[in-house]
Amino acid sequence: MGMINTNWSRNTSVTVCLLGEHMAQRVGVSDAGTGGASKRVSRVRVAVRLRPYMEAHDEKGEGPCVRGLGPQSLEITNWRNATETLQYQFDVFYGEQASQQEVFLSSVKPVLPHVLSGQNASIFAYGPTGAGKTHTMLGSSEQPGVIPRAVREVFHLVREREKESEDWEYSVGMSYLEIYNEKVLDLLAPNSQDLPIREDKGRNILIPGLTHTPLTSFSHFHTVFLPASLNRTTASTKLNQRSSRSHAILLIKVVRSQQGPTHRQQTGKLYLVDLAGSEDNRRTGNQGLRLKESGAINLSLFTLSKVVDALNASGGCRVPYRDSKLTRLLQDSLGGSAHSVMITNIAPEYKYYFDTFTALNFAAKSKLIVNRPFVREIVCSSTTGKRPQDEKGSRGTAEPQKKKVKAGDKEGQEGNPDCVPRPSRSVCVYMHCCPTTTADTVADAPTGDLSPPVSSVLDRLLALEKLMMGTPERERLNLLKTVAQSRREIQELKEKQKELESRALQLREANSTTEPLAQDLPLFQNSLPPLSRKQSTAARPKKQQAVVSPLQVSQECPLQPCTAVNNPVLCSSVKRKQNGEVLEGKENSVMDECALSSDWESRLDPAVLEKSRQHILQVLNSGSLKELKALQLIGDKKAKLIMGWREVHGSFSQVEDLKNIEGITAKRFSSFIKANLLSAVGR
Ligand SMILES: Nc1ncnc2c1ncn2[C@@H]1O[C@H](COP(=O)(O)OP(=O)(O)OP(=O)(O)O)[C@@H](O)[C@H]1O
């Protein structure tokens, strides 16, 4: 690898590269003191911790390749030019001598009070394998790391807050998981399977089924956490005897509930993340399973890097959170709503040079990420006098969260298990700065009686809704406007529909023995028989294709049973009159009525029929989904099946091939062909 062993004392006289707020900017040594030392505060606080030099990792006796310059800066040898170093500036730099206490006090402790106020915080350790991530996060019994110190501090803060005011009650709970080979595994329930990751309408990331254990004290935490840590997947590699083969995420959830008539409930989450190390398999000596693990680790870390790049890119490009489980779970920590601290661990030996270099560059670009923290609060004003069931209710039981999920609850029990079940007749409001989506509004729409235009607007709404879930915030605002517009359209259409229905009803009542006036109600120009009030809903103008122009009937074959009319629809209305039946829905199209006549085909002009057949065949072969659905008796499902068939088998050589489609029986085909030919020749 041709490493250069730098004599640090020589560096003062040479040019150095400075990497400060932004990436690689070369400056002369005289500028180094000012050029990169920007005081701009980044929301994602980035600390770098240098592990003590270990001779065991320096077979060639090359000495360290990194050294600290001050409380915020360090330099690393420039591998391209031995006479240069690369300098970096971070929020904090912890040298080899830094204690666990120091790391905790300056980087972690300051963010913890936010968690008690309903905000999220993330502390994560990043860096190459063997650089000290687990040491930083977990530590040992002699040198406890961030995790035990943070949890102890959370309990300490809770006790203090409880002493200060009796208005708020606090409850603390934990979940603990690992991402191993792209599987989310519950470390508190070691036999569990890969858990799904979901996102609710408030963009909270959820893992239904993940165990949540209420905690009463720090020592209680210890008894739960320690055995669970042993469930984490670790193994020996050439670089680390006990290398973490998974990303571990400990979630500490603090729910605080206000006492009194109005129940405010704030939920803050603290994510403590020990990432698996990035690995160079030429050096780790990984093979077989280790190599597979390494692939998953590197892939997720690569995605993490892409996420950071996308967040830093201007122009709001897509952030690939969904490309790995890790980034999906860290979505809130990077570019989300959490107060985030990234502790980048690096090793000083030359053996780690390129890993260190990569880690430092990653850390430098992560500094630019801005999160937008907000308080997650539910306000419940209950008319029952009952207060919302909070975590106190399940204190002392290790209950899988999925049991708390109540399907169909509009406030999102399923979407957001943090919204605990609320009492009946209570009003729950989410309060945070993010715009909420309109899933609840969509759910309100009476989909059962939507006419086609309404359902298409609804489809648009649902599509927008889906789109919004993976869209950056400022685009979401635009989408929200479109959603609002669509809602207005739905409302207008519903009103129009109601008006038409009531007019139809009035007409029928007024002309109980006569036909309704076509000019009064254009959509009903092919008048339906008189209806009772009860039947009136069936008279909705669902099928605009029922409105057809007069048939081109063969002169030689006048329509016999329907001699009074030369229109299949009118024919059907006569038939309806005869049997007093009301038909509705596409499958029972009025076309079926005329189609019941067995010799209908012989009464139509063969040339026109052939032309119509060709037209149907053409639609079957090249029609879009919409065009296929415009055919009689073809709904959404059948249209999709037709498209699928086309893709697999190519063109339909004749319309009869339609019988190859699942669900199209000979009888159904016969109805289809009659209905469509009649409809087509009618045009
Ligand atoms: N600041 C430190 N002071 C003393 N020892 C340290 C420090 N950092 C790391 N070590 C030691 O270095 C070794 C490797 O550290 P650790 O296991 O924490 O690395 P890691 O980054 O978590 O590795 P991996 O990604 O492979 O799990 C351990 O023996 C650990 O005790």
The pLDDT mean sits at 67
Unreliable stretches: 1-42, 383-472, 513-597
Specify Rg, calculated over alpha carbons: 35 Å
CATH topology of the largest domain: Kinesin
SSE-based structural type: alpha+beta
Number of DSSP E strands: 21
- Structure ligands: adenosine-5'-triphosphate
Total domain units: 3
Number of DSSP helical runs? 19
Proportion of helical residues: 25-40%
Question: How large is the share of residues in beta strands?
Answer: 15-25%
What is the CATH architecture descriptor of the largest domain?
Answer: 3-Layer(aba) Sandwich
Which descriptor suits the 3D outline?
Answer: elongated
Q: For the report, how would you describe the main beta sheet?
A: 12 strands, mixed
Structural account:
It is built from 19 helices and 21 strands. It is α+β, with helices and mostly antiparallel strands. The strands form 4 sheets. Strands 3, 7, 8, 9, 10, 13, 16, 17, 18, 19, 20 and 21 form a 12-stranded mixed β-sheet that branches. Adenosine-5'-triphosphate (ATP) binds at residues 51-52, 127, 129-135, 240, 242-244, 276-277, 345.
Main attributes of the structure:
Kinesin, binds adenosine-5'-triphosphate, alpha+beta, 683 residues
